[in-house]
Design a protein that fits this description.
The protein is an alpha+beta fold and 174 residues long. 61% of the residues lie in helices and 12% in strands. The protein folds into two domains: 44 residues; 127 residues, OmpA-like domain (60s Ribosomal Protein L30, Chain: A, 2-Layer Sandwich). It is elongated, with a radius of gyration of 34 Å. It is found in: Cell outer membrane.
Length: 174
């Protein structure tokens, strides 16, 4: 009887060992197949997918530049000529608008001095100066719109040189 029990126990142990021995090999094969399928998916991108990913990377990089340089350029009193310190900001915007194809509104603003009519005109000249620069850098004119607020939307309230200098501006907005 002891030999029968030992034989049965040996048979059960052999079956368990056989089952346990096969399972890891099958699991390893399944994992290898899954990894190969995933790698094949990465390799098999279409040229269109690759181009779209590259374009999105360009847009993201250009948008970061715009965020770093800001959306505002400033002007001297009674002037619509772009300052040299505005070039980096405007170049970042030009690059972003070219790669993204988005449209932008350029808002022209003035300080409170001058008549309402004169300030609306001056704000429009400032917005158009920005548009002129952006189009000279390759941005399509159809992407740009000028709006003048004159003195109606000050960035800073006040009637002093500091407030006036911050209100003489053009703001780029998507």
């Amino acid at each position: 009887m002891a030999i029968k029990s030992l034989t049965k126990l040996s048979g059960v142990m052999f079956a368990v060992a056989l089952a346990v021995g096969c399972t890891p090999a099958q699991d390893d094969q399944a994992a290898a197949d899954a990894a190969a399928a995933q790698q094949q998916q990465v390799v098999e991108k279409t040229p269109e997918q690759i181009a779209a990913e590259e374009r999105q990377a360009q847009i993201d990089s250009a948008k970061m530049d715009v965020m770093n340089f800001g959306d505002t350029v400033f002007f001297d009193f009674d002037d619509a000529e772009l300052k040299s310190e505005s070039v980096d900001t405007l170049n970042a915007w030009a690059n972003y608008l070219k790669v993204s194809g988005e449209k932008a509104v350029i808002q022209g603003h003035t300080d409170e001095r001058g008549t309402r009519e004169y300030n609306i005109s001056l704000g429009e000249r400032r917005a158009n100066a920005v548009i002129g620069y952006l189009t000279s850098q390759g941005v399509e004119a159809a992407q740009l719109e000028a709006v003048s607020y004159g003195e109606e939307s000050p960035a800073i309230d006040g009637s002093n040189d500091y407030a006036w200098s911050k209100n003489r501006r053009a703001v780029l907005e998507l």
